[in-house]
Amino acid sequence: MKDGMEEAQAGSSRQGTCAGVLHTDVVVIGNGPSGITLSYLLSGNWPYVNDHPHPNPILEHKLREDPQSSILEQDLQYLSEGLEGRSNNAVALLMDTLCHPNADLGMDEPSCLQWTHHPARNIPHVVLGKGPPGGAWQNMDGSMLTLSLGNWMELPQMDFRQWAQHHRSERKRTCMRCGQTHCISLPRSQHGGVNCARQDRAYISDVAQYYHDYVKHMGLEQNFLQGSTVTSVSRLMGDCDFTNLESGELEALCQVHRSECCQINMWEVRGILQVGDTEEPFCYHAPHVVMAVGTTDVPNRLDMKADDSPIVVHDLREIEKAIANKELDEHSDPVMVVGAGLTAADAILCLRSCKVPVVHVFRRDVKDQGLIFKTLPDGLYPEYHKVYQMMKSKDCYPGYKSYPRHEVVQLKADRKCVLRGPVKKCGLARRIVEDSEKVVQVSRVLVLIGARPNLSFLPNNGMDLAVDSTKQVSCKKNPIDVDPYTFESVKEQGLYAVGPLVGDNFVRFVKGGPLGITSHLVKTMMDVTSTKL
Description:
By secondary structure, this protein is α/β, with parallel strands linked by helices.
């Protein structure tokens, strides 16, 4: 137990402690790709433009105006102005197009960045996470394929494909969706299954291992406190003296460059550190706190009383466990899958590969342009288009039945689910009548209608920090309200948010937030230093 805390204290020579309180400059909550990238940048690794010309002539001209300065020292608003892409965050688009020029056009061009390590520019920090580095990626089904291309999953200075070639062996792996066993290195299985590995997409298990290896390879391990759960984040009021671990003297600067920061902008982060079966509280004081948590912590629930029934689950792993325990098989009553996203599609593929019958319920029309399947090329995502074909079919797939434009309204004690269908217009008067309710016998109900981040460590679950403070934080509809270039909360100084919390759900775009935060901190410290001089 004490070893973990001692490692955290030793992570930077500028951290201190008093009465069990640890002091550092930045506390990062979440050790997924966003947190890992931020740790890399805070450790003094700075991006510079290299000699490879950017295909965007306007951006290329801007980059060549000051090639000797790091990107994070420059005006990010100026550099990112006019960029367009699949993220709503300008800095995310900037970082993406510098790392993967013309990616949206299907090009595989070399990066326009080179990285230089400046040890003197290290900003003391700690990254808190419940499990190993990689965050939620460590808890996903490793046999599934990523939605994004493999090289889009990579972090700075460690090429994913080169890592994969070194990491992979010709070991056999069972394909979750086709049920066959083949070599992981095959671009596609010879039996033509819809879930066979392609070289342009990656297994989730490989991505999870890549993030774990990245932290070790880049020498970032000392900054990560594994097994930590944050329970509260609050602003400190008053002085914040502490004892320096090296000198033993009482100090009050809290590792920042202005003494008044201890009094007007200091945060307290409390939590529990677990090592084995032992738990111990921890407490950090820092002027900067970054929220880098993911989106899958709290599953959305059905609006009905029976949502807490033991047969209603929100995690595919619960169904897989039931299959493994032979509680579900081809002779069971159907498993009802609720939802029309990719997670629901994964569940359907898993169930049908095990021959478990499926009833699929979703609110949208199959022709709805908002369905995620409409945006995926069928050549790259054949398994998802297979599910989409099933959703559009009418009793053409044995063991599968879809109910588009339906919702679950009641779950009875005898495992009978009541569904309500769409309204109908009938008769000469076009009178609107409700379609008759349908009753379906089920064995389980798997609800996969999205999730939201767990911000229980913040007052009011973080709602006060959202764009609309009257609603729950939602990564898609109601993200944390931040400055678009520094990623600092517009409502709380010193509090930052990155990744899914600000709407960037794809790894290729999460590098923008860490760049914006590091740039802001570096410029702030430079300004304070120059003022003192």
